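FAQ: What does a ligand-bound record look like?

Like this one, built around S-adenosylmethionine:
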Amino acid sequence: MYSIGEARKRLPQDYVDYLYRAFTPKFGDAVLQAAARPLPSSLRVNTLKSDVHAVMASLRSCGLKFQRVPWSKEALLLDAPREKCLRSMAEYDRGQIYLQSLSSMVPPLLLPLAPGQNILDLCAAPGSKTTQMASLMQNQGSITANEVDILRLERLQYNIGKQGSTIVGTMNMDGTKVGRLSENTFDAVLVDAPCSGEGRFRLDEPKSYRSWRPPLVQKMARLQKRLLASGLDAVKPGGHVLYSTCTVNTAENEAVIAALLKARDDVELLPARLTGLKVTAGLTQTDEERWPSALKLAMRIWPTPNMEGFFCCLLRKRA
Ligand code: SAM
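The answer part, i.e. the structure of the complex:
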């Protein structure tokens, strides 16, 4: 565990400056405080292969301390980083649990998924959310999981097999091109976009922030706009698109949505909220004035001791 001062020194200076320029000092401090502590492990119980009570009993018998969270029946939060221990459990080998950060579990829960639907996961590797969606759909229907990076596609396929997500087929395409090829096809689309990853910066993992540079943010924002447009083309009229990132800056979040709303009139925002998950209406007054008021419906999860920073926005293509 480090101090805020240490976080200020170690994280990229341009990022720290941005935080205090764009948000209130209170938020800047909170974000640095979260980065200064290691993230406790969390897992999702794979309901295709087990149930939460069986997994809880097993964790107890291994002497592991954990708690449940009010917004997901399948999520368990450990008291500290316990990855090594969790990976040595038989439940891990059998694909009955999946190690996933709490924030990463949120986007699929915001989509109105149901068994039998036809879903597209546009940026899918390593498959945390693909396999979560297969469980939520009780392995009924169909999920197309797309990934552009061939090595990451292999990891995705491995995880799909291990989790027993039998309704998933994979695809290796540039996601920006999928919409044009599969127009108005899917009931729902998840665009869990590649991003600069600021929500995952932790001092105990220098890898998490080492390659961050201001131009990376702009590059990601350009790609994200194209991926989101592609996702919207691919969804059926009346269908839902969930856009998410694990980053903090507004260029990859609010600005991407604002640009989309300006460019097309067939899209509306719906509230992205989960019962039991407290989210901060985190933008400063100035920021709120700059963005279309509909953006208040989006969800910002600020980095906290237990959660990575995330942004989620639920959209519907008008029928
Ligand atoms: N949804 C994944 C999960 O929950 O496990 C995480 C997705 S990660 C945030 C973004 C993914 O998008 C990366 O695997 C990256 O390789 C992939 N990606 C990057 N550019 C892409 C593109 N043009 N088309 C499709 N996928 C892309």
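Follow-up question: can I read anything off the structure? Yes, for example: The chain has two domains: 4-37+104-317, 40-100.
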